[in-house]
Amino acid sequence: MSLLDSAIVRLLPAVPKTVVQHFSARYIAGATLAEAVAVVRDLNAGAKMATVDVLGEEITREEETRAIAQAYRDLFAAIDEASLDSNVSVKLTALGLGLSYELCRENLLDVVRTAAGYGNFVRIDMEDATTTDDTLRLYRELREGGHDNVGVVLQARLKRTLDDIAALADLRPSVRLCKGIYLEPAAIAFTDAEAIRVNFLRCVDSLLDGGCYVGLATHDEWLIGESLARVSQHGLGREEYELQMLLGVREARRDELVAEGHRLRVYVPFGEHWYGYSVRRLQENPAMATTIAKATAGRLLGLRS
Ligand SMILES: Cc1cc2nc3c(=O)[nH]c(=O)nc-3n(C[C@H](O)[C@H](O)[C@H](O)COP(=O)(O)OP(=O)(O)OC[C@H]3O[C@@H](n4cnc5c(N)ncnc54)[C@H](O)[C@@H]3O)c2cc1C
Q: What is the pTM of this model?
């Protein structure tokens, strides 16, 4: 990444929302449930599974968290009605974690019970490191309460993750493993790209050795290859692991992996609260930086491009 690109990427939060929306459209199914259903239907037609996320990142009031829980109820009904091959992903802050642990648990239980009623599954996304303890605590509470249709996400970026895998081992958790999008301080996280990769593979080994179901969530070609080699060494069948990618990223590669016989799930976010998610995705895609800078300059100067 050039110095100019990285500077622009850091300045993204200052870019007008309309510009961000334009460039992030590829990463988001749309604002409505109907749009999300249409995207999942297309993915399913191309032999991909989905996990749908109701975006709710800028939420600050209890009523808003209840509305997100309701949106998940509607989502499960829509998935069922259209016979889609999709589970859901939830962010605990959208369900109220930033307001109170109890409120979040109540909303999450509601979502997990609704899912169970439809024979569906809930993946709890992992957010920044201030939420890790509460997220893993809630996950354990649910599992110990007999809710087995729930999985969690672990981030290879965090130094604690191997210990977390060991601590969760008695639950044989279903884990989505990713690098981790939130930039955390060096005291608690690997900051070097190679160190994150190395830790990702250590985590894959540890999870597979522990007999866990793993969703390998990465677009990193080297990591995909190394992870799949481990899956093969463990002699896992097609149904015993999955690859995961984000909507709008490496679409051609997705097709190849499916053609090679792997199951692949695409993360499909939708909803009104698209902004925070969009900025993070664009920050991961430095190739867009110059284009966005030009569009922003054009807008600020009152030009139309
Ligand atoms: C299904 C799924 C769920 C996730 N859930 C979480 C979560 O709960 N918590 C969390 O912290 N993180 C989550 N992430 C994000 C993850 O942690 C990484 O930040 C992200 O996947 C980028 O890391 P990478 O492994 O793909 O490697 P990178 O090295 O970042 O990317 C490898 C290559 O993929 C392509 N690429 C990656 N991102 C983009 C993009 N936005 N636009 C265009 N091309 C791109 C580029 O070609 C890049 O060179 C999730 C990722 C996936 C795939």
A: 0.93
